[in-house]
Structure formats: C-alpha cells, structure tokens
C-alpha cells in the first residue's frame, strides 16, 4: 500500500470507518478508537482506486478553476470536445467569436470582460439552437408537450422544468457531449409526467436513456471544466 493517510480515532464512533480527501489531497481516515491498524490498512487498500481517482479529480478541479485569461492556445469545450482559441483584434472586422475548422477565433480588443461576453453570447446562441432541436425531437418521440425553452447562465444546475412545463437549460450544457445533452433534455421532459425524482420518474428516464447514470456521472466529473 502506497497511500499515506492521517488517522483520526474517536471514542464516539462505534463501528464504521470512513475517509475524506482534505485540502492538498490529504487523506483522512476516521475510525473507532479500538479499531486494529490492520483493519484500517485493509480498508484503505480496498478504497485505493477510489482515493486515486478522487485525488486526480481534485487536482484537475484546482487547475481548471483558475480564471480564464482568453489568450491564444487556451481551450474551450463545445459538444464534449476541447478546442483551442486564436485571439486577435482586427478593427475592420466584426468583433466576436467564430468556430471554424476545429478552432475558436476571437476577434476582440484587449478587454477581458468583453471577451467573456462574446464567448457567453456565442455559447447561448448555440445552446438555444441545439437544445430547442433536441427538445422538439424528444417531445415528438415521447408525445409530450412542453412550454417555452429558456437558456440560463446557471453554473451547476443543468436544467429544470417548471410547474407549467416550461424548460430551462444552462448554456454551459452545450459544452457537454451530445449524448449527455440528450440525457438532460429527456430528464427535464420526463418531469412533465413526474414532478419529482421518485423511482417511477427514473423508470421513465431509463426507458429512453438506459445508461443515464453514466451521463449524470460525466456531468458531475467535468462541470468544473466549463467555467468562463
């Protein structure tokens, strides 16, 4: 076993052993006071793969959570793939973002807030077009009638369905792979039938997206990469 950890024993803890990944990838093990060290080491060995993945995920989050600087070579996601951006300023051309030949092009003066504005506007436009199309597709397939489709700037809530069956989606969803986007669309459409997350609701989702858990996990693991 090659994982170092800090052991925290407690007289109040009766039976269970648990672990936590703290700041700077510190592994903390919480155990009842009289738990043998051999049992604790066995627990850590069994969790080694999970610990390794959690530490790598934490490191990736720390890197990707750094603020955008909007310079040439920086990458931005679109439909699940990262693409580089080429930044320049040509005053005789329209300012804004273009996507061509697997690359973003940003024509903008040196103004970080304005650069962000152009990217957000581009993503919102693409999200409205793509998501409206997928809502229409699945609404027809499932024989469901939704209300309006709204694009929001939510950072972690991918979608919602109101009591009046109006749908809202974060523009950041367009950064995810198409199959993940479809999962969120189906998820919200199924709330037209079931306004909760009961077993009946998930049974409806699984009829259309059998591997929905994989897509839900992808969003959880990658949402930190969609900051602007």
Chart the SSEs and their pairings.
Elements: E1 6-10, E2 18-21, E3 27-32, H1 37-46, H2 48-64, E4 75-78, E5 81-88, E6 96-99, E7 104-107, H3 112-142, E8 149-152, E9 159-161, E10 167-170, H4 178-190, H5 199-208, H6 212-222
Parallel strand pairs: 1-3, 5-7, 8-10
Antiparallel strand pairs: 2-3, 4-5, 6-7, 9-10
What does this protein look like?
This protein folds into two domains: 6-64, no CATH class; 75-226, Zincin-like (2-Layer Sandwich). α3 crosses α4. The protein has a four-stranded mixed beta sheet, with helices on one face. Strands 1-3-2 form a three-stranded mixed beta sheet, with helices on one face. It has six helices and ten strands; from the N terminus they run βββααββββαβββααα. The protein is α/β, with parallel strands linked by helices and 228 residues long. Helices cover 40% and strands 20% of the residues.
């Amino acid at each position: 076993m090659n994982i170092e950890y800090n052991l925290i024993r407690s007289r109040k803890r009766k039976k269970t052993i648990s672990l936590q990944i703290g700041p700077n990838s510190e592994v903390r093990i919480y155990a009842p006071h009289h738990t043998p060290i051999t049992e604790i080491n066995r627990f850590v060995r069994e969790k080694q793969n999970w610990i390794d993945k959690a530490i790598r995920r934490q490191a990736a989050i720390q890197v990707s959570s750094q603020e955008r600087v909007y310079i040439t070579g920086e990458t931005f996601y679109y439909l699940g793939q990262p693409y580089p951006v080429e930044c320049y300023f040509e005053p005789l051309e329209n300012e804004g973002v273009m996507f061509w030949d697997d690359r973003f092009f940003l024509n903008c003066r040196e103004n970080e807030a304005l650069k962000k504005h152009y990217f957000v506007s581009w993503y919102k436009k693409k999200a409205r077009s793509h998501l409206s199309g997928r809502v229409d597709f699945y609404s027809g397939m499932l024989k469901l009638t939704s209300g309006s489709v709204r694009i929001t700037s939510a950072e972690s809530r991918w979608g919602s369905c109101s009591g009046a069956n109006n749908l809202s989606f974060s523009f950041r969803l367009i950064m995810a792979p198409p199959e993940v986007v479809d999962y969120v669309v189906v998820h919200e459409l199924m709330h037209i039938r079931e306004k909760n997350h009961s077993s009946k609701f998930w049974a409806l989702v699984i009829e259309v997206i059998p591997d929905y858990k994989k897509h839900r996990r992808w969003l959880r693991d990658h949402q930190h990469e969609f900051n602007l």
